[in-house]
Design goal:
The chain has 417 residues and is of the alpha+beta class. It contains ten helices and eleven strands. The strands form four sheets. It has a five-stranded antiparallel sheet, with helices on both faces. The protein has a two-stranded antiparallel ribbon with strand order 1-2. Helix 3 crosses helix 7, helix 4 packs antiparallel against helix 5 and helix 5 packs antiparallel against helix 8. The longest helix has 25 residues. The N terminus is likely disordered.
Amino acid sequence: KSTVRYRAVTGASGKASGRHGSCRMGECHARSTSHPVTVTATNDDDAALARTLTGWLRRALERPSLIVAGLSRPKAGTSNETVIVAVWWDDGGARRDERLVVRIQPTGRQLFLRPDTIGEGRVLRAIAAAAPAAVPVPRVLAFEPDAGVVGSPFFVMSHVPGRVLSDIPSCHTTGWLLDETPAQRAALWDSGLRTLVDIGRIPVSGDLAFLWAPALGTTGLRQLVTATRHWFDWVRGERELDVLGRAMGHVERECPDHDDRTLSWGDARVGNMMFAPDGTVAAVLDWETPAVGPAEVDLGWWLMMDEFYSHGLGTPPLPGVPDEATQIARWEELIGRPTRDLTYYKLLAALRFAIVCARSTDISIARGVARPDTTLHIRNPAGLLLYRWLGEPVPDLAPEFTAMMARFVRKRAGRTG
């Protein structure tokens, strides 16, 4: 394991804080390799970014010989811009090659009302300090709050090795999960649930205290619901958005008085976990929407996403993947108490995901890849969950969604045929 000395670089104030950290290789930790990383910039914009990052990383990591050898941009994800950077430097006469990950705050067509990439990095750093053994997260190496460097605030973290499950097409129909045995799948889900419970035990205090927003409500949960209302109104504009509006009213009226001041991940799902070869969680990823609230907030999202990525996409879970009742019983065993108002928390999760889908549809329309008259804002699997869980008649999926899934099926058949 190589050690990198670094400092957090600030903007106009000129203040900097020094700290030591270690980089281990992967989608978020870096480890030295015996040969250069072969990632290259593919256009003029990437080449300019590589030059900018070379100078910035030399100062931030205090590596004057560091060179950005290349960079790439993963296709997945729209909430933040992610750039994987291959770097090397002279380390006492030996060449050191590593990968780093740059998370850049979105501008313009963002998913969330108030994206806060620096806040995401602060949460990661606080988790690493609070529970490094229980909750593995990427190690944050440096921050840059000044938008003038690359056009938006960003932070740099290490790159973690491991495997991530497919989202769409579902991991139950494609990818490495198909090659696992039922026992291995069960163990993988259990490792995920253990980590989920460990996250829900982290108190929101100290370096996480900035997440507490008393102006939005007297409890963390009420703050989350109020923030959801603001986000929903921003996405909705002058539209009604049908079942989303009724679900929004429901979660406001029925909000429990639970006052747990613990950390909520915000996007708790097995697809946001990096897994080691032995099936244990190597890193918990995607912390764009952290909040304060009871552990049921994340459990509700976890179970809702399990439903979405299996039956919601038209496929049953693979053998060995535990059903909902089994997962709830295991969660209760791990956390040491029964669940509370889980139906409410699942509905809250489905609403928040349906808002993501509505906003994503608007972005697709703006980019010219979806028709302005599409019904995808509502008639997607998340929206259909809202209809079902509110006890309303469930419409068909939007034709565009059905066609998209059919294309995935044909593409998969072409690869295996």
